[in-house]
Design brief:
heterodimer, A: 379 residues, two-stranded antiparallel ribbon, B: alpha/beta, 10 helices, globular, transferase activity (chain A), transferase (chain A), N-acetyl_sugar_amidoTrfase (chain A)
Chain lengths: 379, 248
């Protein structure tokens, strides 16, 4: 399994492209630090914003928020640095954590209005089931809702401008044509957020489209009538997750009270949903052989805050790859499945090339704690 | 007239599903199990799974990955990648493949097609042929180069004569472009032989798939528009039906 020579990302990461032994995201990091003319981009941004900026009597942009450090930074920055009047829109995750709720309240305490879109739990649960059993991603509907709910509000409230965070294809790797993109649209959602499944597919599993309206992207006509434009803030100013965290913390935003989320390296990402941090990232691990700690350590390397050697050691000391049991009982209860069904499904999604297996039967080999044994590790 | 099939083409690099452009630029699309389960849901006619690095890396497609996929795959499954011997074929059929696709080894040793067809039956042996377009002509492509000494149409006739049960034509020039399939190529090949022909390469929309289905091909293979747009196999079948072409 190939790992990037600069960071510790493997080539199994979806959408990652390697050139000369270096992953896309590390190439982007060079552009980000040395090549991009950020002053020019800032001028460009001001030109765009001036067309939308109001006098404060109405909302002039929408910030899609989870309550995480990045979206709180986006809201605060758009208001305080750029003089906009944001309306924050959040899509309720699969199962909101206590700290997630606190951080949404933090945003309201900072003076932001917040609209919370929560789909009905009956159909949402069926989509979690499809995500878990068919796509190997227990938070599938969450990924969709985050991107459809704000656009739905944009259309209904006639607020054309949406400010998203970083362009993940630029920051973390993706196809060339999408890296230089400064906007997000429906096709972006289909290409990168949906694991190749489409909402039209859920009908085959008995979920009616009429019952998941909050997840349906508004049709082209509605989008065009309002002139919906979704821009990446990370295209116009240099993205820095640590800066975002530091700023939010200094204002009273909450890190994870129990330290790093299971499988993670740091304690300030993926805090809002019980299953996005632990289980979703673990399912990524069994499919691709890397998890959240790798993601976070790569960000540290690309930001110049850590060497590759330090990251490898930190990865070894992290809990990445350990089954995140903390919130798994909640999921089993929610989906009404047994532990055998749960574990059986994980085994089915485990990439047979990446982990130790019996050469005769193909059976996965696990350690005494039930964790898989990696065949590959960044060296 | 037989119903025309719509076949998603799933490429693997040993670890992950990927999609190529002109057999060169690659996009990694993640887990083969995820992709299979989505196509299972969509009730597609058939699935083709090809490990495009197996031959180059001197190995066969991973049998346990196939076993995992075949275990709850409702669709007929064609598997290819690094198949060199009847033993390789036997192993894959044992793990749940319904047919195998042979490419490199058929070029290296054409008699292998006959050996395989005799042991497993012609219906089980798909010969896959990569084709490039140049100056309005078509050529066989293998190992990163145009095989100028081998005439495409002669090779196709030979493959049929050697006992292949089906031919998969993969248009390298249009691979991953989503700019439109080559109807002429599909037409020429499907008229040339009496065994079923699957055309793959460049399909831009369900309507484009229907245009290919209007030729004598028995199936249209598609990847990019299923991965990257909202088009589904069902949309392709609807487009075919709208043209009066029988589809499931």
């Amino acid at each position: 399994m190939q790992y990037c020579n600069k960071c510790i990302m493997p080539a199994t990461r979806p959408e990652q492209v390697f050139t000369d032994g270096i992953c896309d995201a590390c190439h982007s990091a060079v552009d980000k630090h040395d090549k991009i003319d950020w002053d020019q981009r800032s001028v460009e941004f001001e030109e765009i914003l001036s067309k939308y900026r109001g006098d404060g009597s109405r909302y002039d942009c929408i910030i899609p928020v989870s309550g995480g450090k990045d979206s709180c930074y986006q809201a605060i920055t758009m208001r305080d640095k750029y003089g906009m009047t944001p309306l924050c829109v959040t899509h309720t995750p699969c199962d909101l954590t206590e700290v997630g709720l606190k951080n949404l309240n933090f945003l309201r305490d900072q003076g932001f209005d917040l609209i919370q879109i929560s789909g009905n739990r009956k159909s949402y649960k069926e989509l979690v089931r499809i995500g878990f059993f068919k796509l190997g991603d227990c938070c599938w509907p969450e990924h969709i809702g985050i991107f459809t709910a704000p656009v739905r509000i944009a259309v209904n409230y006639k607020i054309p401008l949406l400010i998203w965070g970083e362009n993940s294809q630029f920051e973390y790797g993706g196809p060339a044509a999408k890296k230089e993109n400064n906007f997000l649209d429906r096709n972006w959602l289909e290409q990168f957020q949906m694991s190749g499944h489409r909402l039209s597919d859920v009908v085959h599993d008995g979920v009616e489209l009429n019952s998941i309206k909050t997840l349906l992207y508004p049709d082209d006509e509605e989008v065009n009538e309002v002139g919906v434009t979704g821009l990446f803030l990370g295209y116009f100013e240099k993205w820095d997750s640590k800066r975002n965290t530091d700023m939010c913390c200094s204002m009273g935003w909450n890190k994870n009270p129990d330290g790093p989320v299971e499988g993670a390296y740091n304690d300030f990402e993926n805090l809002d949903c019980k299953w996005i941090g632990g289980l979703h990232d673990y399912m990524k691990f069994i499919k691709y052989g890397y998890g959240r700690a790798t993601d976070q350590l790569c960000i540290e390397i690309r930001a110049g805050r850590m060497t590759r050697e330090e990251a490898v050691i930190a990865l070894r000391n992290s809990s990445e790859g350990q089954v995140p049991w903390k919130y798994i009982p909640d999921l089993m209860e929610y989906l009404n499945i047994t532990k055998e069904e749960f574990t059986g499904n994980l085994d089915r999604f485990t990439n047979k090339m990446i982990f130790e297996r019996d050469d005769e039967t193909g059976q996965l080999i696990k350690d005494e704690d039930g964790n898989l044994i990696r065949r590959f590790f960044p060296g | 007239m037989l119903r025309k099939r719509v076949i998603p083409i799933v490429l693997l690099d040993g670890f992950s599903v990927l999609k190529t452009v002109k057999f060169d630029v690659r996009r990694n699309l993640g887990s083969p199990v995820t992709v299979m389960r989505t196509y299972n849901t969509r009730n597609v006619d058939e699935l083709v799974l090809l490990d495009i690095d197996a031959s180059k890396q001197n190995r066969a497609i991973d049998k346990f990955t196939i076993q995992e996929i075949a275990q709850d795959c409702f669709m007929p499954l064609t598997v290819g990648g690094g198949i060199r011997s009847n033993d390789d074929i036997r192993e894959l059929l044992k793990r749940g493949a319904d047919k195998v696709a042979i490419n490199t080894q058929a070029l290296l040793k054409p008699a292998f097609i006959t050996e395989a067809a005799e042991e497993f039956g012609a219906q089980c042996i798909v010969v896959s042929i990569d084709v490039v377009e140049e100056d309005d002509k078509f050529y066989v492509y293998s190992n990163g180069t145009i095989q100028t000494e081998l005439n495409l149409l002669t090779w196709i006739k030979q493959v049929e004569a050697l006992g292949a049960g089906e031919i998969l034509i993969n248009n390298v020039t249009r691979d991953g472009s989503m700019e439109g399939a080559n109807v002429e190529l599909a037409d020429i090949v499907s008229k040339l032989v009496s065994i079923p022909v699957i055309y793959v390469g460049g399909v831009s929309s369900p309507e484009d798939a229907a245009a290919i289905a209007e030729t004598n091909v028995s199936a249209v293979g598609i990847a990019s528009i299923f991965h990257f747009t909202d088009a589904t196999p069902n949309d392709c079948r609807m487009a075919m039906k709208n043209k009066g072409i029988p589809a499931r």
